[in-house]
Structures are given as C-alpha cells and as structure tokens.
Amino acid sequence: MKKLILLAVSAVVLTCNLSAQTYNTLWIPDTMSGTTFNLNLVDTFAQFRTGNQTITAGVDNKFWGPTLFFNKGDTVHMNVHNGLNDSTTVHWHGMHLPAVMDGGPHQVIPPGTTWQPYWKVTNNAATYWYHPHLHEMTQEQLTKGLGGFIIVNDDEESALALPRTYGVDDIPLMLTSRRYDNSNAFVFTNTAYGDYMLTNGTPDAEVDLPKQYVRLRILNAEMERAYNIGFSDNRTFYIIGNDGGLLNAPVSVTRVILAVGERVEILVNLGNDNIGSTLDLKAYNNGQAFGFPGGEPGTSGEFGSLLNNIDFNLLHINVIAATNSPVIAVPSTLANNTYWTANDATVNRTVTVTGGNPGQPQNPFGFDNSHFEFNTINHTVNLNDIEKWTITNSNVFGHAFHIHDVQFKIVSRSTGSVGTHESGWKDVLYLPKNTSATFVAKFEDYSDSVHPFMYHCHFANHEDGGMMGQFVVTGGTTGVNEVDIASKDFTLYPNPANDRLYISFSDPSMQAYYVRITTVTGRTVYMLPRPQLQGGIDISNLTAGVYMLQLTDEKTKITTTRKFVKE
Ligand code: C2O
Ligand code: CU
C-alpha cells in the first residue's frame, strides 16, 4: 500500500491545473508495534514533481519510515539492516538508553550490516523520532529521507480522554522542505533551506479530519528552518505535550515556534467547523527578524529560499463528519510531572556557542571554541548527578540545542520567563540569537566510560560542521556494556550475547584481517581468518562465560582485544 502513495502523488502533480490550488493526500506513515522491530534502510527513488524521479532513501519505504509504537516498560529489540550503499547510523532521538545503543556517530553501521541494539523503554508517552547521525553525513542522509516517528504509549496517557486513533484523529506531521536541482535531485550541499514543503514527504499535502478535537504530533525535521505554526483563521489551539511527555495542563496559544528537532503535540477543535469547510495549518514565517532560522533575505543561494520570510501552507485540512466516539473537550489536567528546579542541581556547567576554529571557514559554528572530535570527551558527568547546564548564544543567529540521554526542564531564559508552551520535558531547546537558556537534568541509569553521548546544534549543517560535543556518564554500579578503554576502534554487541556477536567499526574503512576468540585463560575457541562480519559471528555453540575477542585490523595489522560475555 505505502509503495503506491508517492506514485499517486505524482499523478496528481502531473494533472495540476493552473487555475486552482491542487493538493495531494497526506501520507500517513505505516506503523510497527510489538517488541521486535525490523528496519530495512534502502536507497530508492520517488516521484515528487513533474519530470525525473528523485533519488531518496527510506526505511522500508521510499522516503521517511514507519512509525514505531513502543509501550513504556517493554524491552525493544531493533534489527536495523543497512541496505544502503553507504555507512550510516540510526539514533533514537529523545530515548533514554545506554550510550552504546544510542546510534550516535560512534555506532557506525557498515553497508550490509545488521545492528541490533535493545533497551528498556522508560520514556514517557510522547512523540520521538529516529534518524541518521553519521558524522558529516547527517544532512545528506536526512535529506534523502531516512528517519521516522516513534510514539511511546504509557498507562497515564492512555487513561486520558485524548484523541489517539492513529491517522484518524491522531496525526503525525513531519515538517521539512527540499531544494531540487535541474534534474530533480535533492540538493544537500551548500544549502540550509529547501524551497518546497514536504509534509510527511507529501508536497502540497491535504488531509480529511473529523469534526471534533484532533491531535497533531508535529515534528520539525528540517535541516535549519524554524516554523512559527498557527491556523489560517488564527484559532486557538492547545499544546498538550513537549518533546518528552505531556504537560501538566494544556496551554492555549494561537502560534507556536518549533525549531529543528523539537516536537509539540497539539489539540485543535474542529467541532464548530462545518462539514466540507477547509482551513490551513501554516507557517507564519513572514516578518521574523534576521536570526530566526529561515528569516534570511533572498530566495536563492546557500541561505536563501523560496520559503524564507513568507507565510506558507503546511497542511490543507478538509473537515469531514465526526467519528463515532469523538473527543469533544480538552482535559483540564494531563499529567503530574514534578520537574527539577535550579536548586536541585549539584553541578553547574556552561556551553557557549562560538565561531569556527581559525582557518576552518567550512565550520562556522562550534561550542567553547572547539569542534567535534571523535576522540575528545568534552564533559564527564557522574551517574545520578542532577546538573544545571547554561547554554549561551551571543551569536547573531539562532540555534537549536539538543542533548542525548536525558529529558530536561528549562528553568530559565535570559529573555525572561520560560514560556508555558515549553514548560514540559524537553530534549531540544530553541536558542534565539543573543540569548542564553538554562536547563536541569538528571543523568541516571546508564554509565559507560567509553561510549559517549552527544550534545549538538540540531541544524544538520551545523552539526555536520562540528557544532557538536560529547560527554560520558561514569561511575555507579549500573554500568551497561563497559568495554576496555584501550581503543575505540570497534565495539562488540550485544554484550552479553547468546547467539550471534556483532562487531561495529568506528571507521567504516576498517576491516578485520583476523578474528580469534579465546577463553579468559587463553585457549583459542574460534579462528576466523578474514571473516565476513556482516551477519555477525555465530557463537551459539560456546558455553556460557567470559571470552576474549582479538581482532587484527586489515590495514595496520594491529590486534586489539575485547571482552564479551556469552549468556
Ligand atoms: Cu536528533 Cu543527536 O540528534
Ligand atoms: Cu546551529
């Protein structure tokens, strides 16, 4: 079914007439649920506009991937198969999980390899997402369409009278835009902004929504643009959730700014609209001051765009008859979050947006006068500490600050009080030009002195340019997947393992010349010359216990030893 969607889109594009605006039916991503998720990453192509097809990449699809439904408390097992021609990574944005499962730049999945992270879902019910995070390749791979939604359910959220019929009164909306070259290829170099909106990958999207309260789960999956979102009749709508969960109570607004990486869940009342009437969800980006991402002047060039400084449609809505048991009111309370305050923090840190390193004009932005380096740990956090981070942007341009591992509470902003629209749990914060913001978070459950978590600007071009740092969480007794600190060239996973053992290389060009598995006392149990490692190493015949894996690199012939546990 899903394969047909973009072909249907192309037919509509081709029949587009000049007199009236025509729309294409909003694609609603397919769903996957349960506890085992098989995600196949593929290079493919899709018809977005008249003329050539566009080279894309997707997860079991032509562009963007299925929505994964997780239940809080479940342990989920991911089989991520990289069927692309390039290495990639898949990051579970917003999820609290061990660093080695996080899918950041260190967890490179070579082509043909299956990566099998797993973790217990402890996040609150909310809208999260997954996307590639390969250093210096994030913009290209995201542009091609890799990514998807994650929706977590939990008991508290399920007990509320909220719309939750997926695709009917509960709609995921992935907002992004693309620029095309003359042959309809996506442009992903020297471009910060697209020229044409794609909502869930659909150009000029429209959707039928029932005459009742409808929930929209909105994700800004752009490279750099922020959206000032509202409805065409300026109607009031209700923010019910931020990045990491429901707010304590709905917040009524007529506009909300969503920066790259942020999610917001809203309720909008269509109960007073006539069946057959229409309205638009729009970006009111006209008249934003310079510094607002997408507020730059000009319609072309690296920072220009046909969508800069204008109001434009995100979704055309046709009101249809109500469903059988519609939600007809906004709950007055939603959750009972107790948030961290500044006083809870025992450690204070600062991160400052700075310019690029001298002599590196290709990296215009950094943090604290440095750029991302694979082998530099910028911060070390003690497990279970509650920390206060102040992010300062004295730059002339806004940024979107994101941190892995935690959901945080914004406790202050230099511009005055923290908006009620961002009063819940967050993992991205919009940092307008010449401002600072302070958040508090607890770094709990997962320590690993080797595998770092990232913090970065979520603008894909800034992140690729090195506006990223990393931290490790150390200490405690709950460390997961500790490995030898000697070298970071490769990782064994899962660890413990019982059936197959996988090796993930930090440098995709690295190859195993020889793999030898020994017991801790040095007895060799497996010799694997020039092993084909894509399918992992079958260790199902080993008896339970601790083993050493010695891997000799093809190029350097250096041998590194790692410990693993056979269950
Ligand atoms: Cu959404 Cu580090 O990423
Ligand atoms: Cu930035």
Task: Give keywords.
567 residues; Immunoglobulin-like; 3 domains; six-stranded mixed β-sheet; 4 helices; binds CU-O-CU linkage; binds copper (II) ion
What does this structure look like?
- The structure is a single chain.
- This protein has 567 residues and is mainly β.
- The chain has 3 domains: 31-320, Immunoglobulin-like; 342-474, Sandwich (Immunoglobulin-like); 484-566, Immunoglobulin-like, CATH 2.60.40.
- The chain contains 4 helices and 39 strands.
- A hairpin with a 4-residue loop joins β35 and β36 (524-529).
- The model is unreliable at 1-5, 7-17 and 478-488 (pLDDT under 50).
Helical fraction: under 10%
SS class: mainly beta
Q: Gyration radius, to the nearest Å?
A: 24 Å
Name given to the CATH architecture of the largest domain? Sandwich
Mean residue pLDDT: 91
> Roughly what fraction of the amino acids lie in strands?
35-45%
Strand order, sheet with most strands: 1-14-22-21-16-19
CATH class identity of the largest domain: Mainly Beta
How large is the count of helical segments? 4
Give the termini distance in whole angstroms: 41 Å
Q: Count of DSSP E strands?
A: 39
